[in-house]
Amino acid sequence: NAGVTQTPKFQVLKTGQSMTLQCAQDMNHNSMYWYRQDPGMGLRLIYYSASEGTTDKGEVPNGYNVSRLNKREFSLRLESAAPSQTSVYFCASSGGPLYSPLHFGNGTRLTVT
Amino acid sequence: GQQLNQSPQSMFIQEGEDVSMNCTSSSIFNTWLWYKQDPGEGPVLLIALYKAGELTSNGRLTAQFGITRKDSFLNISASIPSDVGIYFCAGQLIQGAQKLVFGQGTRLTINP
Questions:
Q1: Do B104 and A40 lie within an 8 Å CB cutoff?
Q2: Smallest CA–CA separation between B25 and chain A, in Å?
Q3: Do A31 and A93 meet the contact criterion of CB atoms below 8 Å apart?
Q4: Which residue in A14, A6, A34, A67 sits closest to B41, CA to CA?
Q5: Cβ-contact B18, B110 below 8 angstroms
Q6: What is the 3-class SS of chain B, one letter each residue?
Q7: How many CA atoms lie within 13 A of A84 on its CB side?
Q8: Closest by alpha carbon to B11, among B22, B27, B26?
Q9: Count of CB contacts below 8 A, A vs B?
Q10: Is the Cβ of A59 closer than 8 Å to some Cβ of chain B?
Q11: pLDDT attached to residue A2
Q12: Each residue's pLDDT tens digit, B23-58
């Protein structure tokens, strides 16, 4: 099983450019999440989707949008990238109650210059 | 927002030594989780704790859910090179939207 798959693994953007980070899970999980990881900050929740068709803001949603395309896929979009969005982005999914143990992808390392 | 204080931030130890790390919070949690992140990968769940006072082991790892519900501890016995990585605690709040809060991480380095 692939688990949670994120693409791309690495990306460099110029300030103002847009891009979409893709995430797919093959575990039939209901809930999916996007986190960002910055040095010394742990993992911070950007957006989550408790079920297909619903999305909600997390702790740091500004500058991002999400789409729960179907049960498997949850994408994160940066409309106008800023240097402050340089980070490692993790997608995760969970099968039981919200935040029941999370299964993470391997991350996307994004640099905005 | 909610804060978890995880310590130490980093550890440099010799292979074979025991390791202890902890997380404290000003808030009460009903679940404590411990994750490990290997370089270039996403975090993987090590241990989940659901009851105050609970002590749970997973091989050489032992974690405890503090009696006050505001802290948790992770111990690793007889460390080996593959224990290298970043360890995160995470607490799930007892009220509100059941948000999950992560600690800042403990980076473990082992000298062979």
A1: yes
A2: 14
A3: yes
A4: A6
A5: no
A6: CCCEEEECCEEEEECCCCEEEEEEECCCEEEEEEEEECCCCCCEEEEEECCCCCEEEECCEEEEECCCCCEEEEEECCCCHHHCEEEEEEEEECCCCCCEEECCCEEEEEEC
A7: 6
A8: B22
A9: 48
A10: yes
A11: 78
A12: 999 888 989 999 999 988 999 999 999 999 999 999
**What are the residues whose beta carbons fall under 8 Å from the beta carbon of B45, sequence distance 6 or more?**
A101, A102, A103, B33, B34, B35
3-state secondary structure of A61: coil
Q: Name every chain B residue with its beta carbon within 8 A of the beta carbon of A90.
A: 42-43
Give the pLDDT confidence of A73-108 residue by residue, as tens digits.
999 999 999 999 999 999 999 987 776 789 999 999
Residue A111, C-beta contacts closer than 8 angstroms, at least 6 positions apart: A11, A12, A13, A86
Q: What is the CA radius of gyration of chain A?
A: 13
